[in-house]
Amino acid sequence: MGVRVKTGHTLLAAALGLGMAFGAQAGKYPDITSLPDLKINAAKAELGKRLFFDRRISGDAGIACSDCHKPENGYAHPDALSPGYPGNGHFRNSPSVINAVHKKVWMHDGRLGTNLNDVTREMLTEDYIMNMDMRVMQERAKQDPKYVQMFKDAGYGEPSNGSIRKAIPEYLKTLTSVNAPIDTGKMSASAKRGQKLFEGKAGCIQCHNGPLATDGKAYNTGVPENFDIFLDPMNHHAFIAFAMFQGIEDYMNLKRDPGYYNITMDAADTGRFVTPSLRELKYSAPYMHNGMIKSLYDVVGFYNRGGGKDSRKDSRLKPLKLGKQDIKDLVAFLESMSGDPLTSGQHVWKDPYPAEYPVIENWTQVKN
Amino acid sequence: MSNVIQTPTLLAAAITTALLAGCAGQATSESTAAPAAEKSMAAAPMAMAGPAPLAPLGEPPIPPDNLQSPAKIELGKILFFDPRLGGDASTGCSTCHEPDQGWAWAEDFSRGYPGTVHWRNSQTIINSAYFPRQFWAGSASSNESQARGAARGGVAGNGEADIMEARLRVIPEYVERFREAFGTQWPIVRDAWRAIASFERTLVQRDTPLDKYLLGDKSALDADQLKGKEIFEGKGGCIQCHNGAITSDQDFHNIGIPPNKRWEEDGLAQITFRFEQYAKGQTQEGYRKAKSDWGFYYRSKNAWDKGKFRTAPLRYLKYTAPYMHNGVFYTLEEVVDFYDRGGFDEDGRTTLFPENKSSLIKPLGLTDDEKGALIAFLESMSGEEMLMDKPAMPEYAPLFTLAELEAAQEAK
To answer: What does the DSSP assignment read for B11-45?
Structure first.
């Protein structure tokens, strides 16, 4: 895939371009091109689809992937802070999983850099996400004849937690941008002007580049803290558990999300978050790791002011002096990176799930 | 049965308690001597003088590293009733150990964590403080390690230590109470198990008719019960296993309990059944073919331990139906009939491991009168019902004020 080849180049370019005045920067950074096509195994993806919408793969059978990654919200969640597993809150915004398959690092702080199988495992087992004992999950799947058939059809044999963690990523491959103007070339005049600003005067391309409009690196843009993390004890306890697990010192006194600091434990990285993809934003408001910015207008306004307030803010962010029309154009460009909604039966599992697990007949005679 | 064999087991159990109270041991080595014991029991003549006699219940043992204190006990009581000590904040200890259901759960299988059902009967908390081996198959060694296991198990509390600890810390009343009880700045989840264990050590019953009788009040048992006692210690042979003050030798026996039919009829129960095979470390082959609870085998991995369970204590039985590890009997009548038939239920069903069945279990030839007397005696091991109101639950509250958060924001 193209991005990977260009990454080294990006690093170098970014390093050289650090103090550079805004100018024609297109060409120094990978273009926002179409996404590469993927080979998808239909039977596996279909199985993954049923799993993604199934609440029974959470500990108390109360929450599905799709409850936090909702189709009508671009597979993100409309609340600033994601819901949590029942009895818990959360401390970050639930990101869109459209195009997640094209990423190399996941989570707002970039703490997962292996593959979607690992991300899926984290989602399933994390206490405040789905709290699933995967052995229970596997046995539930075995008790549902429809799953037994689908696993077989997918070539996995008998349902197992290992193949569940393969089938879901296969389904995630089907969640990619469809008919986005930036890919079809059918961009409005305003969007085209916006793209010029994006790649030029506004300097967005320095971090938002490549097919996903992200360089996959972490920066401090000075997004204000979301105080609801701390004012709502349910969110706060999830945050405490997270910070404790990450091994952050003095986690009881933390009053901010440390971001990329989790990974490096270098104070300089406090408040840095991974540049998100800018695709499918039309559906995935609110924005930023903690949902603090409500609309794309507000995001552009934020950058126009030179980002937020933070002593460690990235030096690339400076007041942009964009006019009203510039702002509209930038928003139009951002919107041109969103395609058709993925809300039809092609992407969404619409059949009901059985209310009860059928009994395995002749139980004493058959092998478990 | 020979006392010589019994003694080392008891001694070992005593040492184990002393060592393991407070730590989460899952010892697997004990009772490899069991088959030898069982064999010699079989060989020994049916002399009733051997087993420890029934005795009045003394004070519960208190581990030196978790002494009782009023602050701890009160804290443990609140925690015991707090559903936030489970994964989705719905399932605490009292959810499955309801005071008005005998501090147990009045169905064959315990209710489970939401979305699941358990696979064993919920045991009473009353007098659990005395048991060196906890659970039906004796897999926990103290109230402390038991509580930790219960809060976490996939079909029990399903809560992880870190999330539960974090929850306790955003409940200011708990922060205060843990500080008072343990002297820590912030609650530590291990101390929650210690507090609960301290609370459980207050849930004891020492004034049953049997205790009073054994302490010298000869009018405490009526004639029927006295006749029952004689059968218990004689013709019925119960005392061979149900002996001493806690009415249990704390050893493991296969008495012939048949599998619960619910596993043939209930999809949810089938899921848990297979899960438990995994969770308890079955081999692939064992997982495929198991059709009943293999009991002590999961720990010892000795074929001769399949279907063995800890001798269940008989105190407080009046309130804890149904009976046995899988709750197959709903009344004491059914239990006594089962023993009278030599370990068969009314349909003639027995353990799937008859080769391991204790030779002490054999047809008893009890008359209806004798059965009635035996039941009356069993009931004399229960005193008044011990009820308790659920304490008020302390509430969540933010740890920081808005002003503090704003100041931190300004400073960043």
So the answer is: HHHHHHHHHHTTS------TTTTHHHHHHHHHHS-
Q: What ranges do the domains of chain B cover?
A: 26-59+220-379, 70-200
pTM (predicted TM-score): 0.91
What superfamily would CATH give domain B70-200?
A: Cytochrome c-like domain (1.10.760.10)
Residues 197-216 of B with CB under 8 A from A: none
CB atoms within 10 A of CB A147: 21
Neighbours of A346 (CB within 10 A): 9
Are B258 and B328 in contact by the 8 Å Cβ rule? The answer is yes
Q: What is the reported pLDDT for B66? A: 95
Q: Which of A204, A232, A202 is nearest to A83 (CA)?
A: A232
Residue A25's pLDDT band (cuts 50, 70, 90):
low
Helix (H) or strand (E) holding A218: strand A218-219
Q: Are B352 and B292 in contact (CB under 8 A)?
A: yes
* Cα-only R_g, chain A: 22
Q: How many CB atoms lie within 10 A of CB B64?
A: 9
Residues A161 and A261: their CA atoms lie apart, in Å, by 32
Nearest by CB to B113, from A59, A127, A367: name it: A59
Domain boundaries, chain A: 42-177
pLDDT of B109 higher than 80? yes
Identity (one letter) of the amino acid at B207? D
Q: Is B287 on the interface with A (CB under 8 A)?
A: yes
Of A21, A4, A17, whose CA–CA distance to A207 is shortest? A17
| Cα–Cα distance, B287 to A367 (Å, whole number) | 9
Please list, residue by residue across A3-16, b when 16 or more beta carbons sit within 10 angstroms of its beta carbon and e when fewer do.
Answer: beebbeebeebbee
Band of pLDDT at residue A316, cut at 50, 70 and 90: very high
Those residues whose C-beta lies under 8 Å from the C-beta of residue B296, and which sit 6 or more positions away, are: B31, B137, B138, B252, B305, B308, B309, B310
Q: For residues B159 and B292, which has the higher predicted lDDT (pLDDT)?
A: B292
Show Cβ contacts of residue A197 under 8 Å, excluding neighbours closer than 6 positions: A204, A322, A326, A329, A330, A333
Q: What is the DSSP string of B187-235?
A: --HHHHHHHHHHHHTT-----SHHHHHHTT-TTSS-HHHHHHHHHHHTT
Q: What is the ipTM of this complex?
A: 0.89
User: Taken in order B148, B154, B156, B161, is the CA torsion positive or negative?
Assistant: positive
CB proximity under 8 Å: A 14-73 to B? 56, 58-62
Token pair listed for A268: 């300089």
Which of A57, A125, A136 best tests the B interface by mutation, with the highest count of B CBs <10 A?
A: A136
Tell the CATH topology of B26-59+220-379. Answer: Cytochrome Bc1 Complex; Chain D, domain 2 (1.10.760)
Q: Are strands A273-274 and B252-253 parallel, antiparallel or unpaired?
A: unpaired
The CATH code belonging to domain A42-177 is 1.10.760.10
Q: A85 in contact with B at a CB cutoff of 8 Å?
A: yes
DSSP A280-335: TGGGS-SBSTT--B-SHHHHHHHHHTTS---TT--TT-------HHHHHHHHHHHH
Q: How far apart are CA B88 and CA A127, in angstroms?
A: 9
List, for residues A129-160, the tens digit of each pLDDT value. Answer: 999 999 999 999 999 999 999 999 999 999 99
